[in-house]
Each structure stands twice: as C-alpha cells, then as structure tokens.
UniProtKB/TrEMBL annotation:
Protein name (record): Response regulator
Xref: InterPro entries: CheY-like_superfamily (IPR011006), NreC/VraR/RcsB-like_REC (IPR058245), Sig_transdc_resp-reg_C-effctor (IPR016032), Sig_transdc_resp-reg_receiver (IPR001789), Tscrpt_reg_LuxR_C (IPR000792), WalR-like (IPR039420)
Keywords for the protein's UniProt record, in alphabetical order: DNA-binding, Phosphoprotein, Transcription, Transcription regulation
Keyword Transcription regulation: yes
Pfam family, one: Response_reg
Keyword ATP-binding recorded: no
4-aspartylphosphate found at: 59
Location of the HTH luxR-type domain: 150-215
C-alpha cells in the first residue's frame, strides 16, 4: 500500500527512451511512485481518468493532442491532478501556452533530478515552479528587467563591506562614505576595519588594489 506522503506520478512523453528514463529516475526517489505512462496527450488524459495520479510530468511536443491541449483538458476535467511540463521547448509561446492552460511547473529537459522532484512536489502543493531560464524569459516578455545573478563576494565580505570598499576605491573619505550611506562615521570605521582584516589590507591603498583585482569596482572606459 502506498504511503500517504508518496506522490503518484504519470509520465507523458512520446519518446520511449525519454519516458523510460524518467520512470527510472523517479523510481530512485522514495517520495514518488510512477503509476503509469502515456505516449501522447490524448492517452495522458485517458490515463489520468483511469489512475487519478497526483501529478503528470508532461511533454509538450507530442503527436495528435499535444501537451498544451492535454494540460488544458486536465485542468478542466481533472483539476485535482497537477501538471508539470518537462520539454525541450523554451520559447515564449510554448511557456505562456502551457501556463495559461493550467500547468503549475515548467522545466526544460536539461533539468536535474532535484529540479524535477522540487517541481512535482511544488505543483501538488499548488505552487508554481519554473526553470530559471523560463522565469527569465517570462520577465523579459513582461518587460520586467531581469535581475543579474547574485555575485559571490570574495573572502567573506558582506554586501555592505563591499559597498564601503567600492566607495573607498572611488576616493571617498570615511565622512563622505558615512553621508552617502546615511550611517555614522563610527559605523564606517567598523566596516573599514572588518574589510581590511578580511582582505589582508594594511591601508586604504592596498584595499583599493584588492577591490580592482577582484572586480569589485566598475572598469573605466
């Protein structure tokens, strides 16, 4: 008997080798049980009606009824079954079509096992999980600036220490840094002492050289 916290999954993909690979991959994860497979969208809808899985891992480019139409039918006829798209397509039309049809997750086939597991679990919990590239495309399509990926700072510097270091490299005095960051001069001195210790700098000149060597200041020209 299936444990109550095990999610029942249906895998829908028209390529047998991909379908079998996904079944094998999910079989390695104790939190999932693959209850069936489908080779096209129409079969996926029929198998959901028969098996009532918690979630369908759905390809898009299938013959006959494609993944978008199958997702639309499942959302209308079997709303308790979540759909996560796993596809090679990452164009705006495919992404928007699938999400508008009711998919709760969208991954490309470069996704790893952990990404797939997270998306399946999130979909059942009524959360939308998107591949990072997919999310970026949606933001661009909506005209929203895509934030740059976070930069890992060297030697344990905090964001504020790096900010102080950039201002020092720009020639600001402690008093000017304090005014710009709206903090006290004593606070700036504390940050300076910390960043000196972390960067191994004895003075401001060495700290400036460190900032340039580690790309912490914009290049001129």
């Amino acid at each position: 008997m299936t444990a109550p916290d095990v999610l029942r999954v249906l895998v829908a993909d028209d390529q047998t080798i991909v379908r079998d690979g996904l079944v094998a991959l999910l079989g390695l994860l104790p939190e999932f049980e693959v209850v069936g497979t489908a080779g096209d969208g129409a079969q996926a809808v029929a198998r959901v009606a028969e098996l009532a899985p918690d979630v369908v891992l759905m390809d898009l480019g299938m013959p006959g009824v494609d993944g978008v139409e199958a997702t639309r039918r499942l959302a209308a006829e079997h709303p308790d079954t979540a759909v996560v798209v796993l596809t090679t397509y990452a164009d705006d039309a495919s992404i928007l079509g699938a999400l508008q049809a009711g998919a709760r997750g969208y991954l490309t086939k470069s996704a790893g096992r952990a990404d797939i597991a997270r998306a399946l679990q999130g979909a059942v919990a009524r959360q939308v999980v998107l591949d990072a590239d997919v999310q970026a495309r949606l933001l661009r399509a909506a005209g929203t600036p895509v934030p740059p990926p976070p930069v890992e700072l060297p030697d344990g510097l905090t964001e504020r220490e790096a900010e102080v270091l950039r201002l020092i490299a720009a020639g600001r005095s402690n008093q000017e840094v304090a005014r710009e960051l709206v903090v006290s001069v004593a606070t700036v001195k504390t940050h300076v002492n910390h960043l000196f210790a972390k960067t191994g700098s004895r003075d401001r000149a060495q700290a400036v050289a460190y900032a340039h060597a580690h790309g912490l200041v914009p290049r001129s020209g």
